[in-house]
Model the fold of this input.
Amino acid sequence: MPERPSLTVNGRRYRWMDQPLVVVCVDGCEFDYIHQAVAAGVAPFLGRMLATGAAFEADCVVPSFTNPNNLSIVTGVSPAVHGICGNYFYDREAGAEVMMNDPKYLRAGTILAAFAAAGARVAVVTAKDKLRALLGKDLAGTCFSAEKADAATLELVGRPRPSVYSAELSEFVFAAGVKLMQTRCPDLMYLSTTDYVQHKAAPGSSAANDFYAMMDGYLAQLDALGATIALTADHGMNDKFGADGQPNAIYLQDLLDEWLGRGTARVILPITDPYVVHHGALGSFATVYLPGNADVQATIDRLRRVEGVQLALSNAQACARFELPPDRLGDVIVISEKNVVLGTGRARHDLSGLDAPLRSHGGLSEQAVPLLFNRRTAGIPGERRLRNFDVMDIALNHL
Ligand SMILES: [Zn+2]
Done:
């Protein structure tokens, strides 16, 4: 085979793959899920990755939400560069809350599209359809979601279309990945699951261990097919409820209405999306748009004194610290503590779909995620804290 070129994408260089590379983003995968499943003896392949491959703890992007992190993983850069910092932003000029899952909001090309354009066979499978268009932007390759799988895909995978709120939605992704590897042998494959199970079940619980046992079996098959496996997560997951089992929530819109006047400030929760049943749109990150006459610093100081608020920062402070796009966030960024979530108005959250005590994400407390490989790494500089969006760099340049 002729020598293949290296590619430079968004300022980072990637070597051509020697073996098929499968990058897996396990949604909501706190590292402890893996440790507990391995300790329980239900995930022998993950145990092998920990023992004889390479394992790191890495930081995800804050806000620790699904879309910003998936897009960082496939572009290799922060949201400051690729622009996707949540599911929603507020367009001040249009005076409207805008959903950010249209690919037109993506400001950087993906590593996936670059390899496909250079002649690699590339495949992308996501659980939920909300990510498909963003991940598949400009991609000449296979790209589908389990949620909206068409007839040909259902036949390929040999499983019925799963419910969007189920563990089977993620299993479909892994089953599709194995079938694609067996039949089309992609050079580069990206598999992205959903955190339905992690939102309900803590590490070590039987539902969680069942999920990781399922995943383990498919990863072992991909390994047996000769693939390099690189596994990371978009964010972790923590309990967000009190002793009474009810969500531990700070309702920011109610607070700001009281402080500044009803409806003058606007709270945006970038976790909000069409699939809120399992988290009631409650996460640990919020951004606030203040009226023109508001004293931003005084509001920040006041928010910092609210019990359960971990950080309140100005737009400039937060965008510098977390590498975020200033034009898609409000005047103030609020992050709550580990077991606390942020809401808008109490009356605006429909929590009737929560059939288990709330677990969620979005804050600093969900930033640590696993970075696992089925081969040993070489030449990773030791000092720097790794990010989940270093996964393609390590997989292609350091294995
Ligand atoms: Zn997620």
Observations:
- Residues 7-237+362-397 form a domain with the Alkaline Phosphatase, subunit A fold (CATH 3.40.720.10).
- The radius of gyration is 21 Å.
- Residues 27-28, 66, 195, 234-235 surround zinc ion (CB under 6 Å).
